[in-house]
Structure formats: structure tokens, C-alpha cells
Design goal:
This protein is mainly β and 304 residues long. It contains 1 helix and 17 strands. It has a single domain, classed as monomeric porin ompg (Porin), CATH 2.40.160.
Length: 304
């Protein structure tokens, strides 16, 4: 219990400290939250073939924006080797006198368990929004869109060495969105004038590596620290007011995040998870609106 309190206290300290790191952020395009790429996913269904998860999350984003979202996910274990997942997400943003809410994405993926320690994932992110939200006939930046608006390919591999869990994955956009935001369209007095322009936005792909290690506190409580580096493969691009395509400088690069997962097993069928994430290192430019100075997620799971 002493170890548990120490580790939990450290996670909470990191969460509180993140409020003072205004330059920091946590950026991801959604693939680090799907079931097969999260820690402890191998024991999600064990004695059962089906699982439903539902959760809510809250975070602080760039430019004084708060984000709130929820999701529902279904996991089906078809046989010992093959499983499938489906997830539906929503997102709301509020800040600078702008409030938005909408459906985000559907994630569909298949998982193949090659052996006891090795798993492969193949899937897609299907957008439910084209990232074209506007207000008073002016396009809004990506920070106020409920989805990236891109159809993405997701491939991943997971490997377990004793208790150490390793995951590597790629999320690559196959299409682009319909965002038309230009900061120059807004008056100098508007807070949105300082946002990065994303007209005809062309977003690059991401790769991630997750390293996690579960710690059993007792028979019902598990704490899993996790390190999550995400690398944005190239600079993103946009088209300026003169219809010239330009790179968004410094949008390529590394984001390094820390997560702590606290799982409580109510009984064999039901469990609750608290997940807290904070950043340690970020890209200088993050036009996609995914930056989080912290994020907290509560999830309920039922197996049947």
C-alpha cells in the first residue's frame, strides 16, 4: 500500500504540475486510445468473448480551451487468435467564447494473436466530421473541430517480455479534411487571430511507441505506469490567402507523454479504470488542435 500511495501521489503531482507548463502538450490522433494498443489489453476478455467499455474524459488544451468527450467501445474475441474492436467517440470544446460539440470518429480494427507474447493490429479511423465547423460564416480552427476529418490507416504490433509491455503503431491519413481556417480572416482583436492557419490542411502521419509495466497492488487494484513517445513524421501543410501551399514549420517532431492507469476490479465481469496523462516534451507547432496539457479519463467495463 505504501508503494501504491507513492506511485499514485507521483502521478497526481505530475498532473498538477502540468497546469504550470503552458508550453507543454499531449498530442495524439486517437490511435493510442484503442483497446489493442493500450496496456493490459491481453487480459481484457480472458474468460469471456465480449466486452463493452464506456468512458468520459476531460482535458486542458492550447489557447485556453477545455475539452470534454465520451466514447463507447465494443470488443469481440472471435477465437483464441482473432478479435475485433469498434469504438465511437464524441468531443466538445469550450474557450474564447466559442463552444462546439460533435461526433468525432469510428475506430474499427482487427487483432491477431500470433503467439502468447505477440499481437498484430490492423484498423481504420473513419471520420464523422469533415473538420469544417464554422461560426458566423467564418471557418473555425482545428482546435474547435470534433474530428481531424481524415480517413486513417492504423497498423500496430504489441510484444510482452515477462511483465514489460511494448507497443509500436503507425497512423497514416489516406484522405484529408475540409478545414478552411485562415487566421487573417479574423480581426486583430479576436483571440482566434493567433491560431495556426489550416486552410486545405494536409496532415502527416504519426508513429508511437508505448512502454508500460503493470504493478499489482492487491487482488483487485492494479497500477500501470506508461511512457508514450509519438513522432509526427513530416511538417503539415496549409494553403495561404494567396492560394500558395506552405509548410507549417516545426510541426514535425516528437511528443513525449506519461500515463498512469489505475484499474479496480469490482468483480470478474465489471471493472473501473482511471487514466491520467501529462506531457514531458512536445512539438513547437501543433496545428491539429490535439494538444493537451493534461487529460483525465474514467472508464467502466463489463464483460459477458
Amino acid at each position: 500500500m505504501k508503494i501504491f500511495k507513492t506511485l499514485l501521489g507521483t502521478a497526481l503531482l505530475l498532473l498538477l504540475q502540468s497546469n504550470y507548463l503552458s508550453a507543454q502538450g499531449c498530442s495524439d490522433a486517437g490511435f493510442c486510445t484503442i483497446n489493442s494498443l493500450q496496456p493490459n489489453n491481453n487480459d481484457s476478455i480472458k474468460a469471456y468473448h465480449n466486452q463493452i467499455k464506456t468512458g468520459i474524459f476531460f482535458g486542458k488544451a492550447d489557447n485556453s480551451i477545455s475539452v470534454f468527450g465520451n466514447y463507447i467501445e465494443y470488443n469481440r474475441q472471435i477465437n483464441k487468435k482473432l478479435g475485433v474492436d469498434a469504438k465511437l467517440t464524441t468531443l466538445a470544446q469550450n474557450g474564447n467564447d466559442v463552444s462546439t460539440f460533435g461526433l468525432s470518429d469510428i475506430f474499427l480494427n482487427a487483432n491477431y494473436q500470433a503467439n502468447k507474447n505477440l499481437k498484430f493490429t490492423l484498423g481504420a479511423k473513419i471520420p464523422l466530421s469533415d473538420a469544417g465547423n464554422s461560426r458566423e460564416n467564418l471557418p473555425l480552427p482545428m482546435d474547435y473541430q470534433s474530428s481531424l476529418g481524415t480517413f486513417d490507416l492504423i497498423v500496430g504490433v504489441g510484444y510482452e517480455i515477462k511483465k514489460l509491455q511494448l507497443v509500436a503503431a503507425l497512423q497514416q491519413p489516406l484522405t484529408q479534411n475540409d478545414n478552411q481556417f485562415l487566421a487573417s480572416q479574423y480581426p486583430a482583436s479576436s483571440a482566434l487571430r493567433g491560431f495556426l492557419s489550416t486552410n486545405k490542411f494536409k496532415r502527416s502521419g504519426d508513429i508511437l511507441l508505448r512502454v508500460s509495466y503493470p504493478l499489482m497492488i492487491n487482488s483487485k487494484i492494479r497500477l500501470t505506469p506508461s511512457i508514450l513517445p509519438i513522432y509526427h513524421l513530416k511538417n503539415d501543410r496549409f494553403t495561404n490567402q494567396n492560394n500558395v501551399e506552405q509548410e507549417i514549420n516545426n510541426s514535425e517532431g516528437l511528443t513525449l507523454n506519461g500515463n498512469a492507469y489505475l484499474d479496480y476490479e469490482i468483480n470478474r465481469r465489471n471493472s473501473i479504470q482511471l487514466n491520467v496523462g501529462v506531457p514531458f516534451l512536445v512539438r513547437k507547432s501543433r496545428p491539429d488542435g490535439l494538444t493537451r496539457s493534461f487529460i483525465a479519463n474514467v472508464e467502466y467495463r463489463i464483460k459477458f
